[in-house]
Amino acid sequence: MATMQDVADRAGVSAKTVSRVFNDDPHVLPETRERVAEAMRTLNYVPNVLARTFRAGRSTSVGVAVPDVVDPFFAAVVRAVERVCSASGITTLVTSIGDDPAREKPVLEALLRTQLMGLVLAPVAADHAWLAPWTEHTPIEFVDRAPIDLEADSFVEDDRHGSYLATRHLIEHGHTRVAFLADQTHPPSSRRRLAGYTEALADAGLPLDERLIAFDAGSDDGATRELERLRRLTDAPTAAFSSNARVTMHAFSALKDAGTAFVGFGDFPMADRLTPSVSVIDQDPARLGRLAATRALERFNAPSARYEPSTVVPVGLTIRRSCGCP
């Protein structure tokens, strides 16, 4: 069986360049990519990661488990994992956990029993210690939220700083009553984002009013009820921070009708085409998916290698019209 070095020698490049081509690195020159691809075809090269699955009797699949594959954020994570795996000749098995923590364990156990090469997981439960035996032979990569009571890699975005930026921006527009809208499907991220919201209020010398915190805005009806409750307050909020894209989409019409300025955490399709266009904390869920899938394959191929276990990806504020900017 041809090795990566055989491909490198035939293509006149280094083994590292072959690896970059195999992983679809966009920085490889087209002519170099074509030489390496031709060498792979000529030598019938089977990448080591696949060769190892044959030797170990494992499947050639990576699992992806997220709360909701329809959610724009998690859909982007799934697509990114699929792209990384497809480039390596590996299939993906995708499942939705839902928002019930009790459902997470049986769903994941069924997936892990298929002898996966790795698992990319966005959990909803608050205890992951039971996964420890599985991590001994299956790389498990956490995205969007870190593991609890388990040593495993995590790839998360800077939730706290993002919500701080959004809340501070609304305060800079003169709003002193800013609501916090959330749902029950992203509890760890919601807590981090609530911490950033609270910090921004404190830095501006504004008190935290817990009546302005709404945790039931994850549906059209829920968002409508929460916003009606907020509007009935004698000192109703004039602005709102929406803690994820799903909440923003459910609350959009009610926020627009009320003339409430708002910023959402997470972009979503058509957000820039709506009236008003939605100002957002711009996430990069695809990057999280790429990083997690790449790490899963790396750990599968080199189990004893050492990696940085925690990766925090920065976020930024994309200003459109919903916040009140012209």
Could you walk me through the main structural features you see in this protein, from its secondary elements to its overall organization?
It is a single chain. Helices cover 44% and strands 16% of the residues. It is α/β, with parallel strands linked by helices. The protein is elongated, with a radius of gyration of 23 Å. The N and C termini lie far apart (62 Å). The model has no long low-confidence stretch (mean pLDDT 91).
List the helices and strands and how they pair.
Blueprint: H1 4-11, H2 15-22, H3 30-43, H4 48-56, E1 61-66, H5 72-87, E2 91-96, H6 101-112, E3 118-121, H7 132-135, E4 140-143, E5 153-157, H8 159-172, E6 178-181, H9 187-203, E7 213-214, H10 220-231, E8 239-242, H11 245-258, E9 261-265, E10 279-282, H12 285-301, E11 310-313, E12 316-318
Parallel strand pairs: 1-2, 1-3, 3-4, 4-5, 5-11, 6-7, 6-8, 8-9, 9-10
Antiparallel strand pairs: 10-12
Helix pairs in contact: 1-2, 1-3, 5-12, 8-9, 10-11
